[in-house]
Design goal:
By secondary structure, the chain is an alpha+beta fold. It contains 9 helices and 28 strands.
Length: about 400
């Protein structure tokens, strides 16, 4: 007897019958066909389907999860909101999900993260998002930064072991440990990930070098790397944002350089931002079409470039800010509008944010549209506004040596 259980509006999976035998009809299908069917399931249902049988568990883990991850769609954005009645600059984490053609508030995502993390968090604790994983830091005053890696979809939270050697070295040198790090995660290649912690101590600046520590979930260990970098990047500090793509972590220095940290080849290089002397701000970096993109505005024009061969900036778009601004009642400040935004990695869409709404601009037809309005009792402060893209990840994270899962 074949028992079929409905798990979605248009998806069916078999369940074991009372005798414990696999569904007879499904067992006759070849593995390739089963994989093709399973990969059409929504992410949550795909994870649930691992319980059907050992065969499905193996197929989903080894084949479906990497395949799904390679072509994962944008799930939504995290961004900070400030409740009007609370202390100024106390920003809370807000999430909007990508529901078809529009964005809708989804408080359950933030609630699920609250259940995973062992401390009360706000937006400043979320420091990076990479291919479905979120990196949080608990930086209580006077304490050593404690990192956590979370997968909201699989409801996993992993506490990263503290970097004992770095703590001791910082104490001996009288330096402060940095509280910014980034994730490096390619779920279509492996379920393992890395946490890259950056150190900008004075002695590295004097030696014209950069240093970062890398934690590997595969080994459970931190390893420090120091490499030469002869560029004036240390004096003005860094933008608190990072992008990971194909083995490289990208960051922008306030001196208007793009700095690339290759964690596989273990080298670093600095590239001047395009129109460096003319741009009004440090701009923004993101991923679209498997290329690193950069954008900033000069006067009334918003420019977009992409990086070719890790060194050459190629012009892509020039957009009139006046055209974007006209007849948009939700946008009360042009400067805010052109600063706050994100790329859609799978399309040519650009997302803008202001204190009352999120807008999407389709480059192909040059049509901006409001896709989400922020609740009347909340607003986003322009100076702190940023959109952090999130992609659902169906990969089950493995345990790490000498670590504990929350």
């Amino acid at each position: 007897m074949c028992i079929v259980g409905k798990i979605g509006s248009d998806s069916f999976i078999p369940r074991r019958n009372d005798c414990g035998n696999d569904c007879c009809l499904w067992s006759k299908l070849c593995d390739d066909l089963v994989v093709e069917i399973l990969c059409r399931l929504p992410p949550k249902n795909l994870i649930t389907s691992k319980c059907v049988s050992k065969l499905w568990n193996r197929l989903i883990t080894d084949v479906c999860a990497p395949k799904f991850s390679k072509h994962a769609s944008l799930g939504g954005f995290f961004f900070p909101v400030e409740e009007r009645l609370v202390i100024r600059d106390q920003f809370f984490l807000h999430y909007v999900s990508n529901d078809g053609q529009c964005l809708s508030a989804d408080e359950t995502v933030v609630e699920s993260i609250s259940a995973l993390l062992p401390f009360k968090f706000n937006f400043y604790n979320l420091i990076h998002s990479c291919n479905g994983l979120l990196l949080f830091v608990n930086f209580v005053t006077g304490s050593i930064p404690q990192y956590y890696v979370c997968n909201p979809l699989t409801k996993q939270c992993i506490e990263i072991p503290r970097n004992i050697e770095r703590e001791k070295l910082a104490s001996d040198c009288g330096e402060e440990l940095q509280k910014f790090a980034a994730l490096a995660f390619d779920p279509w290649k492996s379920s393992h990930y890395k946490v890259v912690s950056f150190n900008y101590w004075r002695n590295y600046s004097l030696k014209k070098a950069v240093n970062f520590d890398v934690f590997s979930s595969d080994t459970g260990e931190w390893v420090s790397h120091t490499m030469p970098l002869d560029a004036p990047i240390h004096e003005l500090g860094w933008i608190r944002y990072a992008v990971y793509l194909n083995g490289v972590v990208y960051r922008i220095s306030r001196a208007k350089y793009l700095v690339q940290f290759d964690i596989n080849k273990l080298n670093a290089r600095a590239t001047e931002l395009p129109k460096r002397d003319a741009i009004d701000s440090c701009g923004f970096i993101g991923v679209s079409g498997n290329h690193l993109h950069y954008s900033s505005h000069v006067d009334s024009t918003l420019f977009v470039w992409f990086l070719e061969d890790h060194s050459k900036w190629v012009p892509k778009h020039s957009i009139s800010i006046n055209d974007l601004f006209d007849n948009r009642p939700l946008i009360t400040c042009r400067a805010t509008f052109v600063r706050a935004w994100a790329f859609d990695p799978n399309s040519e869409a650009i997302y803008f944010g202001c204190h009352r709404a999120i807008m999407r601009y389709q480059v192909e037809n040059r049509v901006p549209e409001v896709v989400h309005t922020i609740e009347f009792d909340k607003h986003a402060n322009p100076s702190n506004y940023i959109l952090i893209p999130y992609f659902p990840c169906v990969v089950i994270l493995k345990g790490i040596p000498k670590s504990s899962i929350c």
